[in-house]
Design a protein that fits this description.
alpha+beta; globular; six-stranded mixed sheet; 4 helices
């Protein structure tokens, strides 16, 4: 299992792990994800896949993530029934291809079974991405 994160992604993984503290087993995000986990992203961008089937597919995509994050904050954690954790948070960084500042807000709905992430549904401010990328 890869335990290191690509440079510039650490703030995302750190805030997510903070939000899931005590709910999942593992020291690194990828350790907490079930092999057959499903990740769905409720936003559409040209060339972006909205759904990843399995941990490896999402890991492979993250290797190409190009934004350079320098911080993440404003974490809010809500616990619902059925092993569902709702995380709200913000990330901050830069888009190297444009040199523009990147600030975005997320809401991630995470389902946990047997102390592993089995389902992830993500919402974000799509306009923030478009403005920083153009």
């Amino acid at each position: 299992m890869e335990n290191q994160y690509k440079k510039g992604t650490e703030p995302f993984f750190k805030i997510v792990m903070e939000g899931l503290r005590g709910e999942v087993d593992g020291n690194y995000f990828w350790d907490t994800v079930a092999e057959n986990a499903v990740f769905e992203f409720m936003y559409n961008f040209p060339g972006f896949t909205n759904k990843f089937q399995g941990r490896k597919a999402y890991m492979d995509w993250f290797k190409s993530y190009s934004n350079e994050l320098h911080s993440a904050d404003n974490l809010r954690v809500y616990k619902a029934e059925g092993g569902v954790i709702i995380l709200e948070y913000e990330v901050h960084g830069i888009v190297p291809s444009t040199g523009k500042v990147y600030n975005n807000r997320f809401c991630s709905i995470v389902t946990i079974r047997n102390r592993k992430i089995v389902y992830w549904r993500d919402y974000m401010d799509s306009l923030a991405v478009m403005l920083a990328a153009s």
